[in-house]
Amino acid sequence: MESHTEDQAENGQDANGPSPKKPKSWPVPITDAEIRSEFSHHDLAVARINNGSFGSCPSYVSAAQMQWQLQFLRQPDHFYFNVLQPSLLRSRLLIKDLINADDVDEVSLVDNATTAAAIVLQQVSWAFFQGSFSKGDAVVMLHYAYGSVKKSIHAYVSRAGGHVIEVPLPFPVASDDEIISEFRKALALGKSNGRRVRLAVIDHITSMPSVVIPVKELTRICREEGVDQVFIDAAHAIGNIEIDVKDIGADFYTSNLHKWLFCPPAVAFLHTRKCAASADLHHPVVSDRYGRGLPLESGWIGTRDYSAQLVVPSAMEFVNRFDGGIVGIRKRNHEKVVEMGRMLAEAWGTCLGSPPEMCCSMIMVGMPGCLRVSSSEDALKLRAHLRDKFHVEVPIYYNPPKNFEGQIKDFSSMVTGYFRISHQVYNVLEDYHMLRDAINKLVQDGFTCRMLCS
């Protein structure tokens, strides 16, 4: 991998490179009124408790993005030849420090975690086609891996001759030990019949249902069991939980900056641990920077809007307006989402999907069984019903009932649907009361999902 210093020299920059801008210091912490102003573009009629899906960009960062876009429009040649690469480097330097990476050359900026997965899986696919991996060698992934990543694994790995094994994680889940036990079983299955496990794809925070996975422990197990590479899909992680890539020890780690770090869509980082395999990583979009290292390849994929990748310094300035910065935001979001989850579970007589220590700024809350969520289609219909009729935006997860061998006769009392509620700095108590009251009304009215038209 080539050093970023060569790229700067190419663009007429000091070979020592720009240092990351010291985040602007604010005299006093941000006020509630200022938070409301920063997110005044939200639809105030909607209880938006789904930050996990798309995140939200405050006005401070949006304004910075617009300035980058105008700078390009003002003089595109100057922007591309003199401004873009040093500015991308500043963003990468800030991310390097946030995730405790050894070197900025381990950090690449890409559009999203799905793109990062394609970069890693493309390399795995080539290894099968070139004979480095044998047909039938395994890739292990969690059953709750994100849908597009699961499809990417099948598209890249299965077509190349790899064998895909899913780890059937339990839910609801009570402890890390349950996850570790199932993971060990999957690795044993992957190594059966003389196969080798070439790659483990592990979520740091599963999307649906949302659970924080013990990635450091699973990575350690992979090393002990001879797994070639470990890829952590941490789409929800940065800004949500602490990240220390050196401590985790995976080969590849990716996270979206637009979900929980207040950047506009779409921007993510891919961290690649320095090793022989990382030299053969390439961006799927090939440009004239092909072969010069993934950070440089990713920093130029043709004429496009790079502004989302350039506002990381502004996003850090925004989070530093809060008491404790990003650490304080993470702590308060976690405490609040647990409080709101418990409030809702108590109001409905249900339970949480996992203990608080296995949650982040998202938590799973059981829905009253009498609503009769009996399929993923029911979950989508009910979500749309809450959006259209009650102005509440929240994802719903369908959890099929297990085989109880006829012991339970009334399945309407079972919790088969879970809300994934988020808490971000813009959320207020009334948002969760709107959800609570909407469900209470549906229960009072004798509503079931069967009443929703197809």
From TrEMBL:
Q: Which UniProt keywords apply?
A: Pyridoxal phosphate
Is the Nucleotide-binding keyword given for this protein?
Answer: no
Q: InterPro entries of this UniProt entry?
A: Aminotrans_V_dom (IPR000192), PyrdxlP-dep_Trfase (IPR015424), PyrdxlP-dep_Trfase_major (IPR015421)
Could you tell me which Pfam families the record lists for this protein? Aminotran_5
Recorded superkingdom: Eukaryota
Q: Does the keyword Cell inner membrane apply?
A: no
Q: According to the UniProt record, where is the region Disordered? A: 1-28
Domain Aminotransferase class V, by residue range, is 91-274
Q: Which SUPFAM superfamilies match?
A: PLP-dependent transferases
Query: PANTHER family per the record?
Result: HERCYNYLCYSTEINE SULFOXIDE LYASE, L-CYSTEINE DESULFHYDRASE
Question: This protein is called what?
Answer: Aminotransferase class V domain-containing protein
Say which species the protein is native to: Vanilla planifolia (Vanilla)
